[in-house]
Design a protein that fits this description.
ten-stranded antiparallel beta sheet; binds (2R,3S,4R,5S)-2-(hydroxymethyl)piperidine-3,4,5-triol; Beta-galactosidase, Chain A, domain 5; about 725 residues; single chain; alpha+beta; 12 helices; eight-stranded parallel β-barrel; Immunoglobulin-like; TIM Barrel; 3 domains
Length: about 725
């Protein structure tokens, strides 16, 4: 049992293998937060809740001047009844008031983990893996029930939280905010780490000290976004990649989110994470309920690296699903940067054939195969084949590819509609829009209104037809703009601010239906690269196109930043042509391969234009990757040198039993008169000996981790140099 209820103390002690989390039902039934950190054998409450008459912290019970919610650490704080910090939720009543008051009413502890209706979430495969504590809070005046769910994964060492709000009264309620998690830390001795950037520059790792007041990351773009990932961590001062305390917060959601940190007057810190309350409201009629997305928390006392490895294991094995979750992912060749829109069946066949000769396993036909799509100005929504380019249809082309014993994959962008499309001409109200306003375009396209069931059903129908029309075994699901004029033709005025969240619920339903109907298709998500690289989508599609930026040097940062939360099995990484199309940099083919090895490997260039020498390099890369693929896709990941801290990057993958590893080192620019370099490995068995490429005799795991491994001297010279090693236990 991972949840212990102490009736006398009125505490809940949640224990994973390495973490404890303690909640106390305090005076008057308010739910307080007592401890979160390294696992405790038991909780006695040596630090009691402290009560004192504090100036300007009012008292809900006037007779008790020492009691104020403003000074208590809480689990799901309200607004308006004495706490002035950021509330976890806010509800407007039919009389206009926004004051609520939640008290403990009961709880239950269940083995395993109940499903979240309509939303992506982590799961268990058997009930031994986790227990779930559900605490029911109640506002007597309103008949409002708020159920806080805590799932405690013992081995996987994570605690997830979500909230269900139910209107059991007889008044109309309007949710103005409803966070998935709120947690109060006793002090502010932390830095905030988050992942920020933009298109082609996703997930830079940023670290800044907390200061009094608010600090936050969010998205108001209608998707999780290139700009901010739905993740943040509080990192103890002095903690780093390998040691010290880290608290990770990750939201299993793909739309507008907010991660807010508030340091209050006593330098206590409140973290709130969930749906972005900005431009959100949700009408809750009597009898209706609202389920928030899930927040996944991880405590690590082994620095950021420990936190990342916990997220990787959990997301790889208990968030991602389906046939491909535990299968090695195919090496692919994609025609996007090779041809853009300018291709025909013969050109595609020739690229695929060359790929096959070089050992590649999957060909992916990217944008431009449908409607009249010769550039990015038309045809989204017209999911029928472009006969001028592919006169024999999709099946003919797919069979030419599968006939070579290669898999065939297809690009789609099903959430979009071009104004220049048959679909738009027929259904001009099927896009997100508001009355009497212009419909702003992005890449000259509009967004289908997935908050509507009829639109979702139509898309499910169209895609099912396409996917059944040819032997397709991989789909790249793209999404290339953010939301504007967010409104739906079908919702009444008082529900218009539900549109963005209803869109996500519709999207999840469409994805769920299609991945269930086509279990043999490997789905990869994409949003102009990594604009929706989030845990929500990973529940349906086990891998994501990481960035439209395929430059090897940029990718060091992008992939390093992505690895803070996401496993390598989720990271799409391709070798592309030089000069690189996004940053115009020229790097050697060797380094481009070495960087792309650290994810789901592939090529995105015109292989038919390669010289024999280049062919030989590619053939060797594909062969090498296939050998290390199980380590990359299913091993433990260790970051060794950060591209955000200098000219070098290094990382490695270690098999679960520590018998094998794969390490990579990259140097961006040559430095004059540079010193000798070595890297200290991690994650090996200190008592075992390992054989390493290029070294005559075995070396101890302890030596490799404490003294290190020499970077070959020739790498001192020249820009964009790299080296990979295979390391095997003797
Ligand atoms: C954006 C994607 O990220 C690219 O890889 C490519 O598929 C284009 N869209 C196609 O329009």
């Amino acid at each position: 049992m991972t949840v212990h209820y102490d009736e006398k103390q009125q505490t809940f002690h949640l224990q994973t293998n390495r973490t404890s989390y303690v909640i106390e039902i305090a005076k008057d039934g308010y739910l307080t937060h007592r401890y979160w950190g390294e696992r405790l054998r038991r909780y006695a409450g040596a630090i009691p809740l402290r009560y004192m008459d504090r100036a300007f912290s009012p008292n809900p019970v006037p007779a008790d001047r020492t009691f104020s919610l403003d000074t208590l650490p809480q689990e799901y704080p309200a607004y308006g009844n004495t706490d002035f910090r950021t509330p976890a939720y806010q509800i407007q009543l039919d009389n206009g008031s926004t004051v609520t008051d939640l008290r403990y009413r009961g709880h239950r502890i269940v083995a395993g983990k109940p499903k979240l209706a309509g939303l992506p979430a982590t799961y268990v495969e058997n009930d031994e893996e986790a227990d779930t504590l559900e605490i029911e809070l109640y506002d007597e005046l309103l008949g409002l029930t708020v159920t806080l769910s805590y799932t405690v994964f013992n081995e996987l060492d994570a605690i997830t939280r979500s909230v269900r709000l139910e209107n059991r009264g007889n008044r109309e309620l309007k949710l103005l905010r409803a966070a998935s998690i709120s947690v109060d830390f006793a002090d502010d001795g932390y830095d905030m780490v988050h992942l920020a950037g933009g298109w082609a520059n996703e997930r830079n790792v940023l670290r800044r000290p907390l200061t009094m007041g608010l600090q936050a990351v969010d998205s108001k773009r209608g998707s999780s976004s290139h700009q901010h990932n739905p993740f943040m961590a509080l990192v103890r001062k002095g903690a780093d990649e390998d040691q010290g305390e880290v608290y990770g917060f990750s939201l299993v959601y793909s739309g507008n989110f907010l991660a807010n940190v508030e340091v209050d007057q006593y330098r206590a810190t409140r973290v709130t994470m969930g749906l972005n309350p900005f431009d959100f409201s949700w009408l809750l009629q009597p009898g209706e309920s609202f389920q928030t997305p899930e927040a996944v928390t991880v405590y690590s006392n082994e620095g950021l690296g420990g936190m990342s490895r916990t997220y990787h294991r959990l997301y790889r094995t208990r968030l991602a699903r389906g046939e491909f979750r535990d299968k090695e992912r195919p090496v692919l060749i994609n025609n996007w940067e090779a041809t853009y829109f300018d291709f025909n069946a013969d050109k595609i066949e020739s690229i695929a054939r060359k790929g096959k000769e070089l050992g590649i396993e999957l060909f992916v036909l990217d944008d431009g195969w449908f409607g009249k799509r010769d550039d990015d100005n038309s045809s989204l929504g017209d999911w029928f084949v472009h006969r001028e380019k592919l006169p024999g249809g999709l099946r003919d082309l797919a069979e030419r590819v599968t006939g070579m014993d290669m898999r065939f994959g297809l690009w789609v962008e099903p959430e979009m509609i071009s104004v220049d499309s048959d679909l738009y001409r027929k259904h001009p109200d099927w896009c997100l829009h508001v009355p009497d306003r212009r419909r702003s375009a992005g890449r000259n396209q509009l967004i289908l209104d997935y908050s509507r069931d009829d639109v979702c059903d139509a898309i499910i129908g169209m895609l099912s037809e396409v996917l059944s029309s040819a032997p397709v075994t991989y789909v790249k699901w793209d999404m290339n703009r953010n939301m504007t004029e967010i409104g739906s033709a079908l919702l009444p005025p008082e529900r218009q601010r539900e549109t963005a969240h209803r869109y996500m619920l519709g999207l999840y339903r469409v994805m769920e239906t299609l991945v269930t109907a086509f279990p043999h298709i490997l789905f990869e998500s994409c949003s102009g690269g990594g604009g929706r690289f989030d845990p929500g989508i990973l529940h349906y599609m086990p891998q994501t196109w990481t960035s439209d930026n395929t430059d090897a040097v940029s990718r060091l940062k992008i992939q390093y930043g992505t690895s803070i939360v996401y496993p390598a099995s989720a990271i799409g990484a391709h070798v592309s042509a030089v000069p690189n199309h996004q940053v115009h940099r020229t790097t050697p083919l060797e380094m481009r391969g070495h960087v792309a090895f650290a994810g789901n490997f592939g090529y995105e260039l015109d292989l038919t234009a390669f010289t024999e020498e280049e062919d030989a390099i590619v053939r060797a890369q594909v062969e090498y990757y296939k050998e290390v693929r199980p380590l990359v896709q299913f091993g433990d990941f260790y970051r060794l040198l950060s591209p955000f801290e200098g000219n070098e990057t290094a990382w490695m993958f270690v098999s679960e039993d520590r018998s094998e590893a794969f390490a990579a080192y990259y140097k961006v620019l040559a430095e004059p008169n540079a010193g000798y370099r070595s890297i200290r490995l991690k994650g090996l068995d200190p008592d075992a000996d390992y054989r390493i490429d290029g070294l005559d005799s075995p070396v101890g795991g302890d030596e490799l981790m404490r003294a290190g491994l020499a970077v070959p001297q020739e790498l001192l010279f020249g820009d964009f140099r790299s080296k990979v090693w295979r390391i095997r236990k003797v």
